[in-house]
Amino acid sequence: MFDKIWDAHVVHQVEEGPQVLYIDKHFVHEVTSPVAFLGLENRKLSVSRPEKTIATPDHNVPTLDQALPIRDALSRKQVDQLTRNCEKHGIQLCGLNHPWHGIVHVIGPELGITQPGMTIVCGDSHTSPHGAFGAVAFGIGTSEIEMVLATQCILQPKPKTMRINIDGDLHPGVSSKDIILYIISRIGTGGGTGYFIEYAGSAIRNLSMEARLTICNMSIESGARGGMIAPDEITFQYLAGREFVPKGEEWEKKMAWWKSLPTDDGAIFDKEYHFNAEDITPMITFGTNPGMGLKISEPIPSLDSIPPSKRETFRKSLHYMDFNPGDSMLGKKVDYVFVGSCTNGRIEDLRAVANLIKGRKKAENITAWIVPGSKQVEKQAHAEGIVQILEEAGFKLRQPGCSACLAMNDDKIPAGKYAVSTSNRNFEGRQGPGARTMLASPLTAAATAIAGYIADPREILEIKMY
């Protein structure tokens, strides 16, 4: 599948070098685009195909009082500059308070901008969720943003291919976030380096589109260039009728192309893994990279079990987290819970939280930030009664944005505090200077918010353990 899409978009092969790849859709936000637009201006160039680019501010925006001017001067400047650049070059902007506003990797799929067979780029490392539709999607740097704006093409070496197969049935209480944390814990944060990953197998085929987006999102945390899943009837049903999806005869033409994309039987990948869905339980990280994850009921590994080359990182991580080998993660102190981001800020994630907390109350020691990934998710949460369930349990739904995922806005975890987060990275200081982050699923985050400490969601949902 990767080869079919990539090869169909190659414009030119540089002799003994990279390929010139045509880009179908380019997403931009306020953080990585200003210098790229400035580069165009300095070279007296215009945007080649503005209709192929769509913009939204997400990283720096506040998640409270969005109708008011942004207080932080740098954030306000970046958002204002994005507005000016889009106006100057005729680019569609889903700005603050626009009905389509949200995290760039949430609005693309929900508006139907993201479609199978596309090449998609954005100046953001987590561009990979779009691959859940059977697209080749990857993050790019500022100079590459300028290249795409000016030419609608990009110079890229072709990655190798990897397939990760997950077969079998997931146990109750186990989600797509647990699948990807499990995979990364097994192959490591460098296991995907140099590859584009295709996820396959019966467990993957049984996932909803939003669950598939979560898995592809975190492909980057294994070091991969991107992740993708073959389009099928679940994909087509999700896309049908969305704002930017073709209609009528054009829809039928697109479907013919989309149905040809899945990998042919007998195709050979450069590398392949096989895992059983039955082996996966709720997962949580204990260290300072996404590969330092374990089953929530397991103790933190001993130093002897860590390969010698990784022991210094292991020691430093545990020192930063103030954990010890052999500690149980269950019952550990937590101060903050964050549900949101381009990994888990979609309506299904909020539904999962609402399902678990309904009829219960948030623990007093927990500060909870529940942040929708877009205005459409926010609107749907109100329509479905999710907001009422949250409020009755002591939670409050905030406004859309990247929020505490990377703390470039007001939502920062204080130094030394612990957060169970549904985002994608747990690096030192990722959620604020000195913050200590544990990655988990929305169900685990919700269970923790209710208990006041790290809790297994299966116990609160009264699911039979296995």
Account of the protein in words:
The protein is an alpha/beta fold and 466 residues long. The protein has 2 domains: 2-272, Aconitase, domain 3, CATH 3.30.499.10; 282-460, 2-Layer Sandwich (Aconitase, domain 3). 32% of the residues lie in helices and 16% in strands. The chain has 17 helices and 18 strands. The chain has helices spanning 2-8, 34-42, 73-89, 104-111, 142-151, 176-187, 202-205, 209-217, 233-239, 248-258, 311-321, 341-344, 347-357, 375-383, 386-392, 442-451, 457-460; strands at 10-13, 19-22, 25-28, 53-55, 92-93, 119-122, 136-139, 153-156, 160-167, 195-200, 226-229, 271-276, 283-285, 293-295, 336-339, 367-370, 418-421, 436-439. The strands form 5 sheets. A 5-stranded parallel beta sheet has the order 5-4-3-6-7, with helices on both faces. The chain has a 4-stranded parallel beta sheet with strand order 11-10-9-12. Strand 9 (160-167), helix 6 (176-187) and strand 10 form a beta-alpha-beta unit. The radius of gyration is 21 Å and the shape is globular. 52% of the residues are buried.
